[in-house]
Amino acid sequence: MLTQAIRSIVPTYGYTVPPYQLLLDELERTKFTPDISTLEEYEWQLFFATDELKKDHTQHKLLGPEVRYKFPAFTQKNFHYWQHESPFNSPVPFRVPDGVQYNSLPFYPPIGKIKGQVFVIRPQTFLDLDIYKQNTVEFQRHRVRLVVPYRKVKWLKDHNLDPDFGVQEVFCRSNYNGRSIAHSREIVYTVRAWMYIGIPTFWDPLITAYDWGAVEHYNYNRRRWCETFYSIRRPQLPPK
Predict the structure, then answer these.
(1) Where does the chain have alpha helices with state H?
(2) Residue 129 sits in which domain range?
(3) What global pTM score does this model have?
C-alpha cells in the first residue's frame, strides 16, 4: 500500500525514494480510504451491508472473493432511510439524533433501525468499496454498534427426557412438546462493524419528496427494542 510505496527497502543501502509517479498513483488509489494503514493492521474486518451490497444483490461482488457471511443484525441507533425511485441509485441512510422519537416534517421516512447482513472481508476490499460509495464525499464510513438477536438450540435426547437421569427435569416436565429440539427465548448481543452513512451536506440539496421516498419498512411488536425497521428485499430475477 502507500507505506510500502514510500518505504522501498533495499537490503544493502537501506531506504530509497520511490518514483514520483508511483507516489501519485498510490495517493490517487487511496484518496477515498485515508485510514487504509489502520485497516490493514488487522487480517479481517466486519462489514454491515444494508443495500445492494447484500448477498445475492447486484453489487455484492464488491465485497471480494474471500467474503464470508456471518449473521443478520440490526443497527442499535435509529435512522431515516431514503430510496430513490430509480433502481440504479443507492439508498441513503441518515442518523437520527438521540432522543428524537417522532418526525417533525411530513413525508419524511419513519424513524427506525436498519436490518442488514454482517460479513467478514479483507481490509484491502475497502479500497474498492470506498471508491464505489465515494467515502468522505457522498457517504462516510463509520463503525456502528449492531444488535444481533439469536436463540439457543437445545437438543433433546430420548434418554435425557427421564428425570431419573438428572437432566433438565423442569424443562422436561413443562416445555417438552415431542420435538427433538427446542429454542430458548430470544437473546441479543452487540458487535461493531463498518457501515456507510450518508453525509447530509451532500445529500440534503438532492433529496426531494418528488423522486425520493422511504425504504420499505416493517413493524414488529414482539420486539420492544426494534418495533420499526427497514429492510431491502432481494431483487427478483427476470424470467428466463
Answers:
(1) 2-6, 20-29, 36-39, 125-133, 169-174, 200-203
(2) 18-148+186-230
(3) 0.80
